[in-house]
Write a structure and sequence with these properties.
The protein is mainly beta. It is built from three helices and 20 strands. The chain has two domains: 209 residues, no CATH class; 101 residues, no CATH class. The longest helix has 18 residues.
């Protein structure tokens, strides 16, 4: 199912933008509330972004788009709205998080790392990623928007393809039926799940569940199909006896009315990560390192919850993300009591 992921850093970026802009515009006297505020000369989106830059998180994303087009895209994100601090996990281990975005005015371009460091103050310090989330978007030459989100899982897991690879040679669902939209028919006053196939047809399933006495599970029934030319039909030789189920793990499955399971369970190994050349300067607080991530093509079928999103790879092809980081990380947070 398509998801509209709203991570906390994007919300912080937007909130901070409003705060900064409000401060820049508050030139009117607090006594004269009828005077409209005017923006201070020289305040621009670029200057606001510049004020919140702290090092960089950059790299290259290499993979294949869903339409089969290979790509290799660079990125560099610098904007951050909060300080980063080491948190002591054990006598030898510290943890910290890093988040950077492209800018306040740019959505869907940001990256987040959770990192554990062993012996951070020593020359032989080592580090590893505990989680990662990346959003990247770019307007292509044909005015189409290329968007991807990627969040690896470092744990091996079985995932469910709603329509198996073998069966999908017949049903031809886009992304094996993992992409699904919500549609409200204003005429019928009814909601539907909508799936697409590679021939341009749209397949509609009712959102109302019915009980399957054969399996003891609830299911959603096929409602109608709209062809690529706009012709609607409530009957379909191919889809008429297909039902949509949600199993105990909330994974979607397609089964026939006679109980044949059309889905497929795949054992997906843990995604791989590597941090090299980690260095921490205790005097300046500067942290630098190189990183590399490899994310499975099946990760979008994984429902695992992570700090910023579910595990995902919206390209549905193997992804490689590698690059470098340079950022200030404070050694500790000192808490003081307020004056009594």
């Amino acid at each position: 199912m398509k998801m509209n992921i709203k991570n906390s850093t994007k919300q912080v970026f937007k909130h901070s933008t409003l705060v900064v802009l409000a401060a820049a515009m508050s030139l009117s006297s607090c006594k004269d509330k009828e005077v409209a505020p005017k923006p201070e000369a020289g305040i621009t989106a670029a200057s606001i972004d510049k004020a919140f830059e702290n090092g960089f998180m950059k790299g290259t994303i290499k993979g294949t788009r869903r339409d089969g087009t290979a790509f290799e895209e660079p990125f560099e994100y610098k904007v951050n709205t909060s300080n980063t601090v080491f948190s002591k996990v054990s006598p030898t281990e510290h943890a910290f998080t890093l988040s950077r975005g492209q800018g306040f005015a740019t959505d869907n371009n940001n990256i987040h790392f959770g990192i554990n460091v062993t012996n951070k103050d020593q020359a032989g310090a080592s580090a590893k990623l505990t989680y990662s989330y990346l959003e990247f978007s770019k307007v292509l030459a044909d005015k189409k928007l290329f968007y991807l989100s990627a969040a690896p899982s470092f744990v091996a897991k079985n995932v469910t393809l709603p329509m198996s690879r073998v069966n999908n040679q017949t049903y031809k669902l886009v992304s094996n039926g993992s992409d699904m939209e919500w549609y409200t028919d204003q005429t019928l006053q009814e909601n539907f799940y909508v799936l697409k196939d590679t021939d341009g047809n749209s397949i509609y399933f009712s959102t109302r569940y019915e009980y399957d006495a054969l399996s003891g599970d609830d299911f959603r029934r096929f409602s109608y199909i709209v062809s690529s030319t706009g012709v609607k039909s409530t009957t379909s030789t191919l889809w008429g006896n297909v039902r949509m189920y949600f199993n105990d793990s909330n994974n979607r499955e397609f089964r026939t009315s006679t109980g044949t399971n059309l889905s497929e369970v795949i054992a997906v190994p843990a995604d791989t990560q590597e941090i090299t050349n980690f260095a921490y300067n205790a005097t300046t607080g500067l942290v630098t390192f190189d990183y590399k991530l490899n994310i499975s093509e099946f990760r979008s079928f994984d429902n695992s919850y992570l700090p910023y999103s579910r595990a995902t790879n919206t390209t549905h092809h193997a992804l490689e993300i590698k690059g470098s980081v340079s950022a200030t990380v404070h050694n500790e947070m000192v808490m003081r009591r307020s004056a009594q």
